[in-house]
């Protein structure tokens, strides 16, 4: 019984369709993510990767289908009621542009949501934040402001901020694409550790060797459709779809 | 005409104690008027960017009406016109405060709108994705940043409204200009007295500018 519960998918996307005006961005997406699974989403720019993971925490509305996250159901056209809030509380997100709060110190960035949303005491929030900042290797910068940090440090703070809510699922939208090359490694290291600890993750990235290493499953999206799906070995070494082959040929030679 | 005009320094200095009596009115009307205007500005500035069209229209109409008509006409309307509807007189100072409030409120609405809209979309998304409610996201994420960006424009509006209170001499408020007029009526030193009136306005507005400049240097403004 409890074993069945453990295996029940934490994310269940069914027949998801999303339009931006006349543009059909996501077409009949079916996707399930099991607890502890790391799913990496790859695909060309504009294929709908960001839109897909933004639908999961309701940053984008969709027109048809449904998304269930940890038992909360998102319905089309924003008619999800309290489920939206529940999902956002349980799902963390790391953005390409970090989106740290520039008017708050690093530690206040991490403390804000636990205090407001989970009603955690200031002391407890500070303890958690300190521990998380230590874990991502920036405890010595806690009193600084985001603008005083490097891009890599900022993104690690953003990760700590999301983790402070003790999410059941983490979404990453190209977390290293805005970083200088020498800072990509430190962010990927932090994500790698998170994956090792068993966090459920959906990651959009162009870091193919990282994807190969951490992914349990790789999903290739082409023009809003999942056209290839499998283990990293299957997708990277033996892609069945021609489009996947040419996409990989393009990105892997870079 | 006397072509060998002499500036009468003595008269200028003598007028100062008298003119200073007007300053509390100038500060009271502009201070209270702007405070109310700020509240109005927040409300209508946010209505102006509401997702609901009819709320936006209410804000647009308010803003256009009070931005598009002179403060002088507004205060005359309030002081002479409104009593006909209300059935009782309105005190001149109250009328002045009301005029500054509704007029600055219209401009501040636009300042608030611009400030809030200037905050990157990602800030709101980060707040929401952490589970903050829309209201908390506004209160703790958007507003503090927007407010800092608004301060220079708010200071500008403060200076404009302080100067606008000079118009209320026409309804008999004993503010700076009115005090000057009364003084001139007995001494006839128009040049000296109006120069002193101007200097006192400048002292008030410069204090405001300098105060804001200091805030800005401390990094509390902008970003
Ligand atoms: N807010 C929006 N309004 C209109 N079109 C959008 C919007 N966001 C994304 N799109 C379009 O949707 C498509 C998919 O975008 P996106 O999900 O960002 O792609 P990816 O992340 O794979 O690069 C693109 O064609 C993009 O131009
Ligand atoms: Mg994208």
TrEMBL record, chain B:
Q: What is its main location?
A: membrane
What UniProt keywords are attached to this protein's entry?
Amino-acid transport, Cell membrane, Membrane, Transmembrane, Transmembrane helix, Transport
State the Pfam families in the record: BPD_transp_1
Specify the protein's topology with respect to the membrane.
Multi-pass membrane protein
Key word Cell membrane present: yes
Source domain of life is Bacteria
**Is Magnesium one of the keywords UniProt gives this record?**
no
ABC transmembrane type-1 domain segment(s):
23-212
InterPro entries, per the entry: AA_ABC_transptr_permease_3TM, ArtM/GltK/GlnP/TcyL/YhdX-like, MetI-like, MetI-like_sf
Tell me which SUPFAM superfamilies the record gives. MetI-like (SSF161098)
Compartments reported by the entry: Cell inner membrane; Cell membrane
- List residues traversing the bilayer: 23-47, 59-82, 193-215
What role is this protein assigned? Part of the binding-protein-dependent transport system for glutamine; probably responsible for the translocation of the substrate across the membrane.
Q: What PANTHER family does the database record attribute to this sequence?
A: GLUTAMINE TRANSPORT SYSTEM PERMEASE PROTEIN GLNP (PTHR30614:SF20), MEMBRANE COMPONENT OF AMINO ACID ABC TRANSPORTER (PTHR30614)
> What does the similarity note say?
Belongs to the binding-protein-dependent transport system permease family. HisMQ subfamily.
Instruction: Indicate what this protein is called per its UniProt record.
Output: Amino acid ABC transporter permease
Native organism: Paracoccus maritimus
């Amino acid at each position: 019984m409890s074993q069945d519960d453990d295996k029940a998918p934490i994310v269940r996307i069914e027949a998801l369709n999303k339009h931006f005006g006349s543009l059909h961005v996501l077409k009949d997406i079916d996707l399930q993510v099991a607890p502890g699974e790391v799913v990496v989403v790859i695909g060309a720019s504009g294929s709908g990767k960001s839109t897909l993971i933004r639908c999961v925490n309701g940053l984008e509305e969709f027109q048809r289908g449904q998304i269930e996250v940890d038992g909360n159901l998102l319905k089309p056209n924003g008619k999800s009621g309290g489920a939206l809030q529940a999902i956002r509380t349980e799902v963390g997100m790391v953005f390409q542009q970090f989106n740290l709060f520039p008017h708050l110190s690093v530690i206040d960035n991490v403390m804000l949501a636990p205090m407001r949303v989970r009603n955690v005491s200031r002391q407890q929030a500070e303890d958690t934040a300190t521990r998380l900042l230590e874990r991502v290797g920036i405890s010595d910068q806690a009193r600084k402001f985001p603008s005083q940090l490097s891009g890599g440090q900022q993104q690690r703070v953003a990760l700590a901020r999301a983790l402070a809510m003790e999410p059941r699922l983490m979404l990453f939208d190209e977390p290293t694409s805005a970083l200088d090359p020498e800072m990509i490694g430190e962010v990927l290291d932090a994500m790698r550790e998170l994956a090792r600890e068993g966090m459920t993750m959906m990651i959009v990235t162009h870091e193919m060797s990282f994807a190969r290493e951490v992914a349990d499953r790789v999903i290739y999206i082409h023009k809003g459709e999942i056209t290839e799906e499998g283990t990293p070995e299957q997708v990277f070494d033996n892609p069945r779809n021609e489009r996947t082959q040419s996409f990989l040929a393009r990105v892997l030679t870079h | 005409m006397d072509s060998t005009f002499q500036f009468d320094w003595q008269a200028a200095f003598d007028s100062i104690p008298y003119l200073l009596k007007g300053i509390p009115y100038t500060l009271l009307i502009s201070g209270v008027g702007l405070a109310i205007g700020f509240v109005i500005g927040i409300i209508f500035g946010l209505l102006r960017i509401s997702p609901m069209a009819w709320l936006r229209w209410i804000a647009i109409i308010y803003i256009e009406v009070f931005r598009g008509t002179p403060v002088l006409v507004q205060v005359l309307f309030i002081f002479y016109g409104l009593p006909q509807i209300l059935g009782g007189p309105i005190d001149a100072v109250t009328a002045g405060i009301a005029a500054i409030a509704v007029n600055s409120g219209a401009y501040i609405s636009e300042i608030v709108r611009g400030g809030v809209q200037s905050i990157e979309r990602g800030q709101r998304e980060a707040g929401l994705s952490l589970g903050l409610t829309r209201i908390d996201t506004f209160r703790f994420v958007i507003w503090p940043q927007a407010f800092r960006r608004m301060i220079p424009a708010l200071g500008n509006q403060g200076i404009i409204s302080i100067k606008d209170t000079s118009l209320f001499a026409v309804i008999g408020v004993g503010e700076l200009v009115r005090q000057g007029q009364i003084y001139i009526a007995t001494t006839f030193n128009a040049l000296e007295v109006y120069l002193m009136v101007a200097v006192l306005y400048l002292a008030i507005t410069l204090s405001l500018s300098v105060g804001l400049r200091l805030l800005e240097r401390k990094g509390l403004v902008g970003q």
